[in-house]
Amino acid sequence: MIIREQMSIFAGGWLIICICGVIQWCLNPIFYDFYINIDNSRTINSTIYRHLPYPGTFPWNVDNFSKYLGTFTFQLIGGIGCAIGHSTFDILYTTLLACANLHLQILGDTLVDRDETTKIIIRNKLDIHKFYNKLKNCIVYHKTVLEFLDEFIRLSFWPMFIICFDTTVAVCLVSLEAATMKIDVIF
Fold first, then answer.
1. Pairing with 169, which of 44, 92, 133, 142 sits 20 to 30 Å away (CA)?
2. One Pfam family from the UniProt entry (predicted)?
């Protein structure tokens, strides 16, 4: 029951962190434009700057506020959708691995009695039969857990590899963009 609560906290927290990260990323251009526009309002004949969260080429010109708002909303919803998708995969894989770990812990606790009063004392054939059944059940359970892990690894290897590769490429591209970006300092 503790694992279920911990995984629920992790799932909710990670989902909120990912969505809030995308919202913060999308709101940065608005704050930046607000700051630039306040500084430009001191000059005469200045234009209002509008930046979008994600650079892109669109089949329309973003030349008025309604097109900017529509494009911004489209990018915000797309970013939130991507955040939900990626965080859901993270939550799914982490939860499945936690379940496998829990099953292995249960198996370990079943095989090794830590309490002196629950040790099996073999006095007759009935005790031997109980011990044999307990051991047989543990072996079957262990085999089932290992089959689950093998199937999980077989099914999730390539999707997880692609997600990790995609995330690594995205981080590298963002780092490259940040390294080559010219920052205008206004004093």
1. 92
2. 7tm_6
